[in-house]
Every structure is written in C-alpha cells, then in structure tokens.
Amino acid sequence: xxxxxxxxxxxxxxxxxxxxxxxxxxxxxxxxxxxxxxxxxxxxxxxxxxxxxxxxxxxxxxxxxxxxxxxxxxxxxxxxxxxxxxxxxxxxxxxxxxxxxxxxxxxxxxxxxxxxxxxxxxxxxxxxxxxxxxxxxxxxxxxxxxxxxxxxxxxxxxxxxxxxxxxxxxxxxxxxxxxxxxxxxxxxxxxxxxxxxxxxxxxxxxxxxxxxxxxxxxxxxxxxxxxxxxxxxxxxxxxxxxxxxxxxxxxxxxxxxxxxxxxxxxxxxxxxxxxxxxxxxxxxxxxxxxxxxxxxxxxxxxxxxxxxxxxxxxxxxxxxxxxxxxxxxxxxxxxxxxxxxxxxxxxxxxxxxxxxxxxxxxxxxxxxxxxxxxxxxxxxxxxxxxxxxxxxxxxxxxxxxxxxxxxxxxxxxxx
Length: 415
Ligand SMILES: CC(C)(COP(=O)(O)OP(=O)(O)OC[C@H]1O[C@@H](n2cnc3c(N)ncnc32)[C@H](O)[C@@H]1OP(=O)(O)O)[C@@H](O)C(=O)NCCC(=O)NCCS
What we know:
Blueprint: H1 2-6, E1 8-12, H2 15-30, E2 38-42, E3 56-64, E4 67-93, E5 100-123, H3 132-146, E6 151-157, H4 161-170, E7 174-177, E8 180-185, E9 197-202, H5 204-215, H6 225-229, E10 234-242, H7 254-259, E11 265-272, E12 278-282, H8 286-301, E13 319-328, H9 332-349, E14 354-359, E15 380-386
Parallel strand pairs: 5-6, 13-14
Antiparallel strand pairs: 1-3, 2-12, 3-4, 4-5, 6-15, 7-15, 8-14, 9-10, 10-11, 11-13
The chain binds coenzyme A.
C-alpha cells in the first residue's frame, strides 16, 4: 500500500491535457448506490469553475502512471473572523449650537483573516483507502500555508463518514458551524409578491456600501465584496421596504437610506450558478418522472391555483443562489419573504430549476425563506482548522473556538 502511494504523483491540474480524464473521475464518483436517486453535477467542461472566481485558487490532480485517480480544489481569500470595538472620535453638536464637542464613541469594526477553503476532493473508487485523499489534502494545505492562509475549512454532509473521518481524525479539523442549505423549486407559475412591499434594485456600488456598513462584521464576510457584486455572475442586489417609504425612482442612495431607514427592511443578492454548472437527478423511476411532469402540466394550465409543481430535475437544470441576506425590524421576515418571491420569479424567467440559499442556523430571517425540506439540508457541516500559530490579530483569539454569531455570510463563489 505504501509503495502504491509512492507511485502517486500530485501536481497542478493542466486544463489542456487533464480535462477529460478529470471529468471521467468526477463521473464515477457521482454514481450513487444502485437503485437510489443520485445527484449528478455537470461542470460544463471546466473543472476549475467552482473556485475560479476567488482571488487565489489552485486545483491539484493525483496521477498514477497515465491515470488520474484523484483531485482537489482550493481557494484563499480574506474574510471577517470576528469584531472588536474601536474608539472613534466624532464631532457632534452639543446643545450649545455654537460649540462643537469632541465625543468618543465605540464602533464595532471587523477583524479579518486569510481563509482557505477546500472543495471538490475526489478519489476514484478503485483507488480509495490508499492514502491518496490524505496526500491531496496535505499538498493543498502546503499551498495554503505558503500563501499566508491562517485557517482552512471544508463543508461536507455530516453523514459522509469518509470525508468527516479524513478531515477530523487525520487532518486536525474540528466541527465549526452547521448552516442550513435551503432549496426551493421554481414552479411553473409566478409567485405573488406582497403589494405592501416595494422592491428596489441597487447598483453594485450602492450594494457594496450597504453591505460594508451593515454586514462587514458578520463572520465570513469577504473583504473583496466589491468583486463579488461586480462579477458577471451576480444578477443584482435587491432591497425590500414597506410600500410608501422608499421608491426606485426617488432612491437617494444607500448612505441616505441608512441614515433614515424604514422600521423594517431586508436585502438579498442573486448569483447565477446556472452558467457555471448544472445538476441532474438520476435514477428516478418512470412513475416519479411522470408524476412530476403531471404537476407541471396542471400548474402551467392553471397558474392561478399556485400549485407547488415539481420542476424537471431529471434533465440538467441550473439554479440561482441567493446570498447576502440581511435586514431588520419587526417586518424583516415579511420583507425577506417578498424578496424570495421576487427571486423565484427571476429564476423562472431565466429557466432555472431551483433557488438555493445557505444561512446560519440562528439566522432570524430564515423564517421568511420558502423551501422544500426534501431538497434542503438542515445541517451542512463546516469543519475548520487553524493553519498557523502566528495569528495576525490576537484580539479575537482562535476563531475555531469562537461561538457562532446569529448570521453568517456564505460566499456565492464557493457554493
Ligand atoms: C473522501 C475521499 C476523498 C477519501 O479518499 P481516500 O483516498 O480513500 O482517503 P484516504 O485513503 O487518504 O483515507 C484517509 C483517512 O480518511 C478516513 N476514511 C477514508 N475513507 C473512509 C471510509 N470509507 N470510511 C471511514 N473512514 C474513511 C480514514 O480515517 C482514512 O484513514 P485510514 O485508511 O488510515 O483509516 C473518497 O472517499 C471520495 O472520493 N469520496 C467521494 C467524494 C467525497 O465525498 N468527497 C469529499 C467531499 S469534501
């Protein structure tokens, strides 16, 4: 076994000569147990597609002779890992209008760290339990350290024993967060959005301002949020406010909005995963496929009934990812529901099968997110490891040991 591993060469993925062989491994790894449904991902000829939008990324392959037997992807970026109070001096008017007084106020400011993420680790079923997965992870972590990353994390299903054991038992990762992936199908009818809510599309710069002002202390918030919002896959940022408070035609900009916000509001951005990869459910019986089709036919014929029809998951379908959810006020959940109704209709217009999102398990706005339990994942397990000891900002201590916040920022580039 040791000799076998010595024959495995780990090197950087070469798109010119490796693409087809990598796709072949991807395919055999996707095959689920016979007779059961399996989810097939089509990376559309670009095996790096799920990391290439990050500031730094790498894909490695494990090669044995002429055969590619495994691969791993990784990326690095700077994110918020905590917050600290900073004293800021501020001129403020005292009751005496003629004299300005200098007042010191405490403001929460983000503490950032360089974070690495591992995804898409695969080893051919015929070459498992030989140490190849471990070798790929170690080599990827070397690259993370060489590039100054302080933490590394992975997301996996908590029932994926092989993956959980590999990372926690053998590589020193520990359970960190368990956000929920919430998935809603796109029906054949349009969803009604409450008439009491106005939805305003923000420009990328207005969205950036709002996110930096309000969400930069949320953990995992990316410091390069501007490159996320300006990416061609970002379909826009949408703000929901009670009708009669703000209007698209007289929108004064995020700065003025935040200095005089309505009592309740909510914000959400949409990312187009459909142009990156598609999904397909394989292994469904003819009966299931026919039933699903029937629901769509009825829904299309009688859209006013608002039937929860099942999309065509049995052919490749794309999806949108809703990210950057936030907001406040007693009607924040209602605003969120309106935004997701709007996002549903956008996805329908663009021919998507589902709208997915991922939020912290404690997210107060999650009650406004429509989803089907059978398509969702209540606990997506995120495991994290501290790579370096010379931590850049001692004020928040070891992030891996910190308690979760109410919200988490899930970067659409990594979904
Ligand atoms: C997870 C995966 C990459 C592991 O690859 P691998 O080359 O077989 O892993 P290794 O041989 O390096 O195993 C290292 C350790 O992981 C754990 N492990 C690996 N496979 C396991 C299994 N089937 N059951 C339990 N533990 C397992 C063990 O602790 C193992 O050490 P050991 O062999 O000394 O007991 C492989 O099973 C795979 O491709 N699975 C499908 C895709 C997937 O789930 N990827 C992970 C998503 S992040």
